[in-house]
Amino acid sequence: MFETLTAPLRHLGHVTINAIWRLGFASRFLLAILLQSGQSFRRLNLTIREVYFAGVLSLIIIVVSGLFVGMVLGLQGYNTLSRFGSADALGALVALSLLRELGPVLAALLFASRSGSAMTAEIGLMKATEQLDAMSVMAVNPIARVVAPRFWAGVISMPVLAALFNVTGIFGGYFVGVQLIGLDEGTFWSQMQNSVDLHNDVINGLIKSLFFGIAVTLIAVFEGYDATPTAAGVSSATTRTVVTSALVILALDFVLTAFMF
């Protein structure tokens, strides 16, 4: 009877201690990346190659998703605003929704699903096939050679992808509102111009995306580096990357929004 009552408490304690241990290990891992980042900047070809894989190859899903999100915002925004006789404010609604919240958050979620999971799988597979151990034997630091370029590639790519998501989303809202529904084009753009502030909306949105990029990329490379060197271990690490990144993005969004707005 006593064992039955204490088993859940032991399990909770084990999960809590393991979470604290992993958080501490991730903090040390981030410090190691920053200390070993010199090679990433001295050999820019490593980082540029990873920017291509993490950023350029994500353009299709970012642009297409941004376009459709903007089109949905245009339809839903017009339907809501027209009830209050404020349909002319559609441009401001689309722009502010994308620049402040939807652009950075959705772009980060897509980036985590596409590039973050790929980073985890790649590093985890290198660990499973003992490529990281082989680098250490040859006096090559795997964090400097493998992890740091991918980390900085993600940090660089994320704000650019978020900006492209915003641009295509605004174009999608313009297409629905002006071309399909028939709102005045000048009113659409002027309302947007009068409502959007460079610092409060555009810059703060890019700052959000930068924090999201740091968080997502750190989770991705950490999970790959810490993965169990088996097929099941790499698969589990990839799943943890996507789930943890999504939760961290949403939590960070709340914290950053509270401070910014």
From TrEMBL:
Membrane topology: Multi-pass membrane protein
Full protein name: Intermembrane phospholipid transport system permease protein MlaE
Keyword Transmembrane helix attributed: yes
A Pfam family this chain is assigned to: MlaE
Subunit description: The complex is composed of two ATP-binding proteins (MlaF), two transmembrane proteins (MlaE), two cytoplasmic solute-binding proteins (MlaB) and six periplasmic solute-binding proteins (MlaD).
Regions that span the bilayer: 51-78, 90-111, 158-181, 202-222, 242-260
Annotated family: Belongs to the MlaE permease family.
Subcellular location: Cell inner membrane
Main function: Part of the ABC transporter complex MlaFEDB, which is involved in a phospholipid transport pathway that maintains lipid asymmetry in the outer membrane by retrograde trafficking of phospholipids from the outer membrane to the inner membrane. Probably responsible for the translocation of the substrate across the membrane.
Molecular function as annotated in GO: phospholipid transporter activity
GO cellular component: ATP-binding cassette (ABC) transporter complex
Source superkingdom: Bacteria
Keyword Zinc-finger in record: no
Entry keywords, A to Z: Cell inner membrane, Cell membrane, Membrane, Transmembrane, Transmembrane helix, Transport
